[in-house]
Amino acid sequence: MSYYPIHTIPDYYLIDDLLTDEHKLIRQSVREWVDSFVMPKIDDAAQHHKDIPDLMKELGKIGALGPYIPEEYGGAGLDQISYGLIMQELERGDSAVRSAASVQSSLVMFPINEFGSEEQKKKYLPQLASGEMIGAFGLTEPNHGSDPGSMETHFKDMGDHYLLNGAKMWITNAPLCNIAVVWAKGEDGKVRGFIVERGMEGFTTPETINKWSLRASKTGELVFRDVKIPKENILPNVIGLKGPLSCLNSARYGISWGVIGAAIDCYCTAVQ
What we know:
Number of strands: 7
Structural class: alpha+beta
C-alpha cells in the first residue's frame, strides 16, 4: 500500500513558522519512523487485535518514551512542544501507538520523575525510557470510571510493608506491563501512589479482548489480592488526588496533539 508523501503534508495554518529547526527535525524523524515501521504493520495488527511486536523498544530507540525526562534518568530532556509533536506523529500512524507511548510517558514516567524518590527514578526511569520496561497506570476502576474520589482500591500499613487490595479497569499496557503506578486509598482516606511490580504475589493483569477501537494496543485489568508492597515502593512526594490528576493533565496534553495527527492522516487519506 502506498501512503501520502510525508514531505507534501500541507501546512495551511503556518504552524512551521512557530517551530524551531530542532522541533521540525524531531517531527520529521518520528514521521519517517512511523511511515517505515508502523504503517506497514498497523492494518494487520488492528484487524487481528494484536500489538506490534517490540513496539515499546522501538519507541525507546527513537526517544519517544518520556522525551521530556532529564537525560540523567534516560530521557532526552526535550521541551513539551517536542513531546507534543512526537505524540502527533505517532497518532498519525495509529491511536493505539500513541496511547502506548503516552501512558508510558505521561502516566508512568511523569509521576515517578515528579513524585518519586531518587532511588525510584534511577531504578525505573532509564528502563522505561528505553522500552526495556513497560509501565501501566492504575486509576480507573470497574465502579468508578470518572470519579476517582470514590475509588475502592485500598491499602493498609502493615508495619514493614503495605497490603494492597482492589482492581483497576481499562488499563492500557496492563497485560504487558512490568510495573504499574497504582493509586489507592489509605485507612485515613488519603490517596497515595505505589509502584507495583510484575511478580508480586496476588497481582494479576487479565486482558480485555474484543475491543472495537485501539485494537493494536493491549488493554486489561490490574487486580490486587493482598499484594505486599515494600515501603520503598510508595511515591513519597505526593498525597491526595493531586498526584493522579496531574498525571492526567500531562496525558491530556499529549492526547490533544495526538488528535491533530489523526486529523492529518484522515485528510491525507481523503486526498489520496
